[in-house]
Design goal:
The chain is built from three helices and five strands. The protein has a five-stranded antiparallel β-sheet, covered by helices on one side. It is 38% helix and 24% strand. It is α+β, with helices and mostly antiparallel strands.
């Protein structure tokens, strides 16, 4: 019986000891990681902020209205995000489009600079070039609702 008590005390002591040493290591690791951060993060934007900026664009609003119209109000604009590097800079890649029950239909692929949220780029659909959104000549094709979806 004494051996069981001693073994139990050793196990409990081991658990508390691991917790104490683990917390010391974690505190040291945080300091080490913080000391490695060199770049200024004041301009850094999060993925959520980048998505909000894309969805606030007039282009995205027109696509959202178009999708809502053709789906008779059952669906809205969908998007998914990824990371991308363009000319050595980090960007969020955000694809906007229609998510049907069969597949995701990408309408536009946009890029938001992680360090400058005002730097938004788009893949030009015809040439495939990545250009600033300000240079994009929108054909407004999503302003036109197909005949079969127009109200009578």
């Amino acid at each position: 019986m004494n051996k069981v008590k001693i073994l139990l005390l050793l196990c409990i002591g081991g658990l508390f000891g691991c917790q104490w040493f683990g917390s010391l290591e974690a505190k040291g690791a945080v300091a080490a990681v913080d000391s490695l951060v060199v770049k200024d993060t004041s301009a850094y934007i999060s993925l959520e902020e980048a998505e909000d900026r894309v969805l606030a664009l007039p282009l995205a609003k027109r696509v959202a209205k178009y999708i809502e119209t053709i789906s008779e109000g059952k669906r809205g604009i969908s998007y998914f995000s990824d990371a991308a590097t363009i000319d050595g800079e980090e960007f969020y890649e955000i694809r906007i489009g229609y998510d049907s029950s069969i597949r995701f239909e990408t309408y536009y692929i946009l890029y938001v600079n992680r360090n400058n949220g005002d730097d938004i780029r788009i893949i030009e659909p015809v040439s495939g070039d990545i250009i600033p959104i300000s240079s994009f000549k929108d054909d407004k094709k999503y302003d036109e609702v197909p005949e079969e979806h127009r109200a009578l």
